[in-house]
Amino acid sequence: MADPSSQRPSLLRGLSLLGAVALIVGNMVGTSIYTLPASLAKECGPLGIVAWILTAAGYLFIALVYAHLGPRYPRTGGPYVFAREAFGEFAGFLVVWAYWISATVGNAGIALAIVGYFAGFSGELEGSAGAKFALAQALVWGLTLVNVLGIKKGARLQIAVMFLNVVPLLALSALALSHFDPGNLQPFAPHGWGALPVGAAMIVWAYSGIESATVPAEEVAGEGRTIRRGTMIGYALGTLVFLSAALAVAGALPNGELSVSTRPMADVAARVAGPWGARMIGLAAIAAGMGTLNGWILMAGRIPVSAAQDGIFFERLARIHPRFRTPHAALLAGGAIASAMLFLGLSRTLLERFDSIVRFSVLLTLLPHLFAAAAQLLLARRDPQRYARKERRRAQIVAAIAFAFSMFTIYGVGPETALWGLLAVLAGIPLYVLFKTRAPPLAA
Q: Which stretches within 253-347 are classed as H helix?
């Protein structure tokens, strides 16, 4: 695999263990936890609790895959690096294409969600589409600028947001559990157990970002140890928040009321703590959205860098800022795509279509997991110098379960979304042909 060019500035190692944990938790525990309980109640009923447990168990193995691969192949790009190492350039391209599209398009959806929470505190903002659009653009470009200025600045913001988000959620969950009513769990599976794969696929969006510590690998202080520990700690903390919140919400509100709620966490807070509790959760939701948007902007700036260096992606995205030592070109390109997608929010009809695009981006986050699991299956056999005998056996068991779970969740997204995801991936193939046949740059 080609090494980064020695003629350009290197990335700065500024992401600590706490920063890595905050990046993972921020990318996971974002806007989804504040809306998913209602969607799950509608599609699954209280069976959604089982969907959370099942998804958490499956993502344990996905987390272990990244915790094993990240320290062994510590190069910027995460899943792209693993897929290319195992299966070659074409597989690597498919992964980076799907992953980058998912991140950049998804950032527009996250920005719109944050604006929605802000609108809950301002009647003037709620009634002005132009003001909402301007605020969403300001969020995208403001956080893009923060990340251009250095990974340490982005990491500090991420750490602060993690505490502003996680602490209120855990406090609310503990309080709501004291109001737990078992009667709210009946009927437990109103749509049958066949709704379980659908629920698991919905929860995938919440767990998007489990791979976050592997993507900026060249900027992680402590390299392998930090990536490994950060991934597992981030998974554990995120899962604690998810499961406690899911159980608390399902027990505090009747399923019929929960399924039609537009702000389920705020409704629970109002039920158990009064109006001030709902207001605090609203503020925590804004903090969560900021953390998620900041984290995925950081990710969108790193996902294509190594592929661009290797000549199978847009070559300008490999540029590193000479002063700040960040991938500024990729960060600005990601911001531009998210900014352009926000124009869809100016029309109600287009916004509905945009929601569908965001849903299919969930599928595109599963493709990197699928390839990473398959890569570990191959690499554990092919690269015995990187794995002790016991580690090889364990890695193959873990990877096989992670692969099977990824397939299960892809099945759960449904045929229509899977078809659109497949078309999005295949649409990138002409670009791969272009990248592979373009003339090499002239020697300096």
A: 255-259, 264-273, 275-302, 305-309, 328-341
